[in-house]
Amino acid sequence: MSLQGKRALITGSSRGIGRGIALKLAENGVKVAVHYYQNEKAANDTLAAIRKRGSNGMVVQADVSRQDEITAMLGKVKTEFGKLDIFVSNARPEVPAFFQAPMDITLEQWDAAFDSQAKAFLVAVREAVAFMDDGSRILAITYAQGSRTGGLQPWVGMGSAKAALESLVRYFAVTLAKRGITVNAISPGWTEDSVLNTLPTQAQDLIRNWHVRGWTPMGRLGTPEDIGNVVALFCSEQAGWVTGQVIYADGGASLMNPEVPTEIQLG
Ligand SMILES: NC(=O)c1ccc[n+]([C@@H]2O[C@H](COP(=O)([O-])OP(=O)(O)OC[C@H]3O[C@@H](n4cnc5c(N)ncnc54)[C@H](OP(=O)(O)O)[C@@H]3O)[C@@H](O)[C@H]2O)c1
After folding, report:
1. Residue ranges of the domains in the chain?
2. Contact of 113 with 161, CB cutoff 8 Å
3. Cα separation of 42 and 62, whole Å?
4. Ligand 1 atom 29: the closest Cα is on which residue?
5. C-alpha 263 – ligand 1 centre gap (Å)
6. Is the pLDDT confidence value at 18 over 70?
7. Fold entry, domain 7-198+223-258
8. Taking CA atoms, which of 15, 172, 175, 199 is between 20 and 30 Å from 211?
9. Cα(49) to centroid of ligand 1, in Å?
10. Does the beta carbon of 121 sit less than 6 angstroms from any atom of ligand 1?
């Protein structure tokens, strides 16, 4: 699979899953625009790691919940790269910006979720396709469990925003199909070296144990590298016939039945 010479913009690639995607694409010869919001040092570290892998790129800053900043970011990428072949919408605000149950969530928190996911994707895709060739790739990183369940109550804002994002993926897939530009969503399971590591230790332990004990049939959490591999796969020419889909990349966790104890399911 060669992606040599392609150019990508990955939002939120200073850290976490976005960084894993950036490094994996760089290993495949892709030039990467590393985007960050506040953590410039982390973005520069990612760019240095990209260069160590024999590729190159640039660093761009933007608050993706602001339309003018998204437009400015895409403008810088256009000036530097000329063309874009891969756009990955991955950035997500810090948890306190949106994490509140339905009866308590403020409209600011609701807007933080929707502006950074659905609206950001709408704005960025329209800007990006203007300098993308036919056959390019657009990917959104979602959390499909959160968009179709209701148990984790303070996730209501982000879950609803991810549902809207997934819907936009389907609409854009049809809009861009004639140009051979595929638009898909990747839904990681819980992933190491990401937002998970910012949760209280007790919550991290509970989540890890739950998955290792059986909820994830493969018996471990994902890594940013796992998700990078899936994104690279979907950027390949061979993936050109798949569009408008939500792909679970979670070691099988989404296959489990929440009504039956894992010990019984796994046999
Ligand atoms: N982690 C998981 O287990 C998991 C599971 C399923 C889905 N996901 C999805 O995967 C994506 C990445 O998650 P993650 O856990 O890897 O993220 P993370 O480690 O928390 O990193 C967040 C990234 O988004 C950037 N960011 C934060 N607020 C922003 C804003 N207002 N505007 C622009 N960028 C902003 C950060 O930039 P700075 O470094 O500058 O702050 C950083 O690059 C998200 O869409 C998330 O919903 C994650």
Report:
1. 7-198+223-258
2. yes
3. 14
4. 93
5. 33
6. yes
7. Rossmann fold (3.40.50)
8. 15
9. 19
10. no
Ligand 1 centroid to Cα of residue 92, in Å, is: 4
CB neighbour class for 245 (10 Å; exposed up to 12, middle 13-18, buried from 19): middle
Confidence of residue 2 (pLDDT cuts 50, 70, 90): confident
pTM: 0.98
> What does the pLDDT look like over 108-145, one tens digit per residue?
999 999 999 999 999 999 999 999 999 999 999 999 99
143 CB near ligand 1 (under 6 Å):
yes
Residue 138: which of 109, 175, 101 has the closest Cα?
A: 175
For 27-70, how does the pLDDT look when each residue is reduced to its tens digit (9 = 90+)?
A: 999 999 999 999 999 999 999 999 999 999 999 999 999 999 99
